[in-house]
Specification:
It is built from two helices and eight strands. The chain has a four-stranded antiparallel sheet, with helices on one face. It has a two-stranded antiparallel ribbon with strand order 1-2. Strands 3-4 form a two-stranded antiparallel sheet.
Length: 144
């Protein structure tokens, strides 16, 4: 140790020890982790709906397919054997069923042949509603 001109002791070793540095880094990382967890919780609460219900992946996928099938609706005209030259649009809708021709199918997406789609809504268990779709290939005048 050296004595300065003022008479106080001064150490040759100034600076921070490794232990002090490790303690400071640990405290800063814990503080950062706490802030990140708080921000994460707030962002999750902000994005979830008020009732806390999230649609399942299965429901979202079914909704996407239904949207694409309805968007692929084709205005197909057909004539009955009794009518002379007048065509009718192939679409039938009821409160619990629907029939139409669409270019989007479950099997081939939008790359396949047009298909006749028949939707039927039925009651499931409790509050659930079941939607069933049947697809049949359209050919000239007859189904395959």
């Amino acid at each position: 140790m050296h004595r300065s001109s003022t008479g106080s002791r001064r150490s040759d070793r100034t600076g921070v020890t490794l232990l002090e540095l490790i303690i400071v880094i640990t405290l800063l990382s814990l503080l950062t982790l706490g802030m990140a967890m708080t921000i994460g919780r707030r962002s999750i609460r902000w994005t979830e709906p008020a009732d806390g219900c999230f649609p399942s992946r299965r429901t979202v996928g079914a909704q996407r397919v239904l949207d694409q099938q309805v968007a692929g609706l084709m205005p197909v005209l057909f004539s009955c054997s009794g009518s002379a030259g007048t065509g009718m649009l192939f679409f039938d809708g009821a409160p619990d069923s629907m029939r139409m021709v669409s270019s989007f199918t479950l099997e081939e997406a939008s790359r396949g042949y047009p298909r006749i789609l028949e939707y039927a809504a039925g009651s499931g268990n409790g509050l659930r509603v079941r939607l069933v779709v049947n697809e049949s290939i359209t050919t000239r005048g007859r189904d395959r």
